[in-house]
Each structure stands twice: as C-alpha cells, then as structure tokens.
Write a structure and sequence with these properties.
About 25% of the residues lie in helices and about 25% in strands.
Length: about 260
C-alpha cells in the first residue's frame, strides 16, 4: 500500500514538473506585445503652441514692402492711414480697431498693420511658404528602404499602428521625406525611443522613431533627402527598425499611399 502511495506521489511530481516545463516553453515562444504608438496628444500640443506664436513669427520674418503682404501691410514713407485705407479698400475705422490705434494720424514708417483676412494678396502669399513646395501624392520619398515589419492600421489582434515599421540595420541613415522644419526632438514619449518630428508645407507632419541618434535639432530647416538620424532600437523594440508616421495635422495617414512604390 505504501509503495502504491509513493508511486502516485512520484507520478504527480513528474506531471507537475512536465507541466511547469511546458508552461516555461510556451512563455518563451510567446511574441512580445506590440508597441502602442500614441504621439497625437503631444503633437496636438505642439501645433497649438505654434498657432499661438504664428502671428509674431510671421511679423518678425516679413521684409518691408509697400503693399499688403499676407495679412500684414508695412507702412512706407508718405503713407497715411487714409491713403492705405483707400489703396487696400478697408475702412479707416476697421484698420484702427484691428491695430488698436487711438489716433489715425499716428503711424510710422515700417510699422506693421494687420489687415482683415480677406485682404490677403494671394500672389505674394505663395512666395513665403517657408521654401516649401506644395505636396501632391507620391512627392514624399522613403526615409529608408527596407522590409516592412508592420503595416498601417489595425492588425488581426486589434492593435492599431499609426504608421509603418521598416526593418533596418543599426546606424543606417534616415532621411527627411520632404523639406520642412524640425518641430520635435526627444525621447520622453513611452515606446518611441529617440523621436523626431518634421513639419512640412500644407499641414503635413512626418515622425521618425527608435533612432539610435538624431542629427538635427528643433528649429532646423531640412531639405528633402537630408540626413536627420541614424536607425536603432531605442524604445520598446528589440531589433533595429524605423517607426515612421505621416500625418495631416494630427490625423494619421497611411504613408504607403504617399510614398513611391518600392522597387
């Protein structure tokens, strides 16, 4: 009877050990959960701050001219508020309200006067778009060419990718997909590692994550094809890759639709 009990106990121990080994094996085979990419909140904050500062930046970058420039008029020698009002067909009263003027006779040379939005000179406006061309389909270039690891959108497990992930080797050169201004450089957003964002013409934003090194700084103007980073595996990934996003404002857009076909 005792032998039978010992035999049962030994079989139970063996079964327990086998079960534990199978559990460990299944854990080792399980794929890590995908990174949840969420830059919308910080991008929204960046764009809001840019919008607040946009008017002052525009004023500081405008060269004096003697006709309406976007929604600004630069006062020249011999100008009076009455002459300006007649020239641009805006009432003196409206100009005084827009520019907080108390005396219509007190304006000075090179003073910047704000104009109503509907008085924008469209021809001049086109010439001051930060050296950036209008973007149409397929005018972006690939930040780096490689095997696609993850596609845009929701996968079979329900995880949503706001961009695409491209396989790289550590240290590969990452380039700007279009000309624009660097609006973010940092590594404080969970999952992204070293992250770079560039603002382009017409509200386009490109984002580049998991870099080993970023070679530009916030405020830099970059030209299409310029090196902006070296690829890596920073953030919540285990192998070198680039997480790339293309956005219209804060809305994620499938980059594949705007990149040339891979040859």
């Amino acid at each position: 009877m005792e032998r039978t009990n010992n035999k049962c106990i030994n079989m139970f121990k063996l079964f327990y050990i086998l079960f534990f080994l199978i559990f460990l094996y299944s854990c080792s085979e399980r794929k890590p959960a995908p990174v949840i990419y969420k830059i919308t909140p910080i991008l929204n904050e960046i764009l809001k701050n840019e919008a607040k500062n946009n008017k002052s930046k525009l004023n500081s970058n405008i060269k004096p001219i003697s006709k309406p420039y976007k929604n600004i008029y630069i006062v020249k020698k011999g100008d009076t508020l009455k002459k300006i009002s007649k020239k641009i067909k805006v009432s003196i009263n409206e100009l005084m309200i827009l520019n907080n003027l108390k005396n219509p006779n007190k304006i000075f040379i090179e003073q910047k006067l704000i104009l109503p939005e509907n008085k924008i000179d469209n021809k001049i406006q086109k010439k001051i778009i930060l050296k950036e061309n209008n973007l149409k389909n397929n005018q972006f270039i690939w930040p780096i060419k490689g095997k696609l690891l993850n596609q845009f959108g929701k996968d079979k497990n329900g995880y949503v990718n706001d961009g695409i992930n491209i396989s790289t080797k550590k240290g590969d050169i990452i380039v700007a997909v279009e000309s624009g201004t660097v609006i973010f450089v940092g590594n404080n957003i969970r999952g992204f590692g070293n992250l770079l964002m560039i603002r382009h013409a017409n509200g386009w934003i490109s984002a580049y994550a998991h870099n080993s090194k970023i070679t530009v700084k916030k405020g830099d103007f970059v030209t299409k094809g310029d090196k902006v980073a070296n690829s890596g595996s920073t953030g919540l990934v285990k192998k070198p890759q680039l997480h790339f996003e293309l956005r219209k404002g804060i809305k994620p857009i499938n980059p594949i639709k705007y990149l040339p076909p891979l040859v």
